[in-house]
Amino acid sequence: xxxxxxxxxxxxxxxxxxxxxxxxxxxxxxxxxxxxxxxxxxxxxxxxxxxxxxxxxxxxxxxxxxxxxxxxxxxxxxxxxxxxxxxxxxxxxxxxxxxxxxxxxxxxxxxxxxxxxxxxxxxxxxxxxxxxxxxxxxxxxxxxxxxxxxxxxxxxxxxxxxxxxxxxxxxxxxxxxxxxxxxxxxxxxxxxxxxxxxxxxxxxxxxxxxxxxxxxxxxxxxxxxxxxxxxxxxxxxxxxxxxxxxxxxxxxxxxxxxxxxxxxxxxxxxxxxxxxxxxxxxxxxxxxxxxxxxxxxxxxxxxxxxxxxxxxxxxxxxxxxxxxxxxxxxxxxxxxxxxxxxxxxxxxxxxxxxxxxxxxxxxxxxxxxxxxxxxxxxxxxxxxxxxxxxxxxxxxxxxxxxxxxxxxxxxxxxxxxxxxxxxxxxxxxxxxxxxxxxxxxxxxxxxxxxxx
Length: 452
Prior knowledge:
alpha+beta, Beta-Lactamase, Helix Hairpins, membrane, transmembrane
């Protein structure tokens, strides 16, 4: 059901009041009716006893004049019916007697209404002076009681209607005032846009009933901010990584078009373009892979992996690049674990590529593999410039640049490695001192363990 919450609250409030007051009026009417019935019954029975006592005190040679027995009680009437079901003349007072009194069970309180009055009566069986049974009916005019009850009920209903109207207004105001935190929430959230995703709502400014919702909303803003930062990072990083090779290809091709070139020159240019395109393809693949890893959409295919064998194949590949700097790659230790071999290969390849790039000439790169409790640990060490301690804490952040006399961008390799390790339940860190840098990764031996 759609509509205003304030309207719904007002309707529920007034409807609840209506039901409660209606029940109260019904109870009042029932209780008052019972009270008057009990009171009138006791009164009529007492007058019946009075009439019977008066009859017993009359001599046998005197006629009974029923009309004079209760002359001091103008609201009370006495009628008598003999065994032949005939009204004794001296008791007739022009009243219409219902059949329930004439023929019904004695002692039963009977209510009825004429055109102008309300009556209650009780019939009893007694004997006359000759020992004959007759039905004695005592009737009381209860018009005053009935009018009082009807008038009270009518006044209560009118009062209820007036209070219903007043409480509807009060309920509408209370609902409007009670929903003011929602209006405040709506106003504050309407001011949040793509440039103010860092905004957080203060839970203490809202009632307790809304604080959990505010907390959830703030968490949602945090996730949105993180997602937007990721999107901005990927766009900026992609533009940064693509700009240089695209510019290089553009300049090279423009130079080739400025004059006649030999087929060998065209071949060299095409080969160079292919290298740049392969680099661009790898960059796009890495960015997409990191996006999937950070959004937890990456599929992990676990299998038994021999870490030494995997590292050896990568070392053979990177040794060709290391030979240009006369750098030797050495592997120490061995271990096995259950993980995704393709992702682990990408992580180790990133670390080796980074080590070869920054290693000093005529030095060594050492890949150390070991086990520690239920984890395996692998480190890649190279001799080269020491990384400042402050940079070590930010080295795995997106698009981080460090300044060693000149600003150098380290690319997305280390950021990608951290994202992939998080997916595999592992962690990565770096130590650098005395012209030596070691990158460490730690992974659980089984895929159901996550390192903190």
